[in-house]
Amino acid sequence: MNKIPNLSGLSCPAPACSAPGFCDGAESFPESDTLNSAAAQTPFCQKDNGENSLNLTSENSLNFAVQNYSNLNPQSSALPQSSKLYQKPIVVITGGEPMLHHKEALFYEFVCELLARGHAVHFETNGTIFVDFEKFPAYKSCVFAVSPKLSNSAEPRERRLNFAALRSLKQNAKDSFYKFVISPEFDAQPEIREILAACGGEVYCMPCGADRRELESAAQFCVDFCLKNGYNYSDRLHIRIWGEKDGV
C-alpha cells in the first residue's frame, strides 16, 4: 500500500462530525489526544490528481489522509455523471496497527464522519489493542478483520495474543472475523483452535504468496486446509491480476 503524504500544508475545511451519538463530547478529549499540527484541522482534502482510491496508512505519528474527496461525496456537482458512484465504497483502515490511534480525537472524528456519510468502515487489526466501545461507541458500527499473530511470527505470546481484546471485538463490533495466512511450512490449526475456543468467530484463510507462482503453489494447500477444518477460503486476487505490482 502506498504511503500517503502528511497533510501539513494542505488547506481545506474540516467538516463537523454529524453522526448522532458518535461525537457527543468530542471536545472533552485531552490535548494529548489531538495532533499538534496543521493536519489536525484538515482531515479531509481533495487532491488534484483525480485518483480513484482511498488509501490510509497508520504509523507511529498518525499520518493519514484521504485520496479523492469526491469518492466520499458522490453527490458533488463537480463530478461528471458517469463517475458518480451508485454504491459507496467500503473504507478499509489498515496500517501498521490502526487501533493504536483509536482514542485520538482526529482519528475518531474521521471514523464518525465516514459513518455519517453512509460508508461501511472496516478495520484491519492484529487484535492486541483493547477498544473501549462504551467511551467510543462509533466503533460499534464498524467491522473488524482480526489477524492475530501466530507463533511462526517469532513474537512472544504475551505480545501477540490479547484474549480480552479479542472477546471485546467479538462482543461489541458490528461484525468481526479472523483472517490467517496459511502455508504448508506451518501447521496453524492448533493455534487457530485455541483462539476460537477462547473467543469464537468466523475464520477466513488465505494462501501465502507474494507472486503468482508462490500463490499457485500454496492455494491448493490452503483450500484443502479450509475444507478439512470448515473455514472460509480467501484468495489474493490482486496477486493473480497484477502480480507483484505495488499500490493495488
Protein described:
There is one protein chain. Mean pLDDT is 75; it is low at 1-72. The longest helix has 18 residues, at 212-229. The protein is globular. It contains six helices and six strands; from the N terminus they run βαββααβαβαβα. It has a six-stranded parallel β-sheet. The chain has 248 residues and is an alpha/beta fold. The chain starts with 90 loop residues before the first strand and ends in a 6-residue tail after the last helix.
Question: Which band does the percent of strand residues land in?
Answer: 5-15%
Mean pLDDT: 75
Q: How far apart, in Å, are the first and last alpha carbons?
A: 7 Å
Helix % is 10-25%
Order of helices and strands: EHEEHHEHEHEH
How many β-strand runs? 6
Described by strand count, sense and barrel closure, the largest sheet is: 6 strands, parallel
Strand order of the largest sheet: 1-2-3-4-5-6
Overall geometry: globular
C-alpha-based Rg, rounded:
19 Å
Oligomeric state: single chain
Low-confidence stretches: 1-72
Helices and strands: which structural class? alpha/beta
Tally of alpha and pi helices: 6
Short description:
With 248 residues, this protein is α/β, with parallel strands linked by helices. The protein is built from six helices and six strands, in the order βαββααβαβαβα.
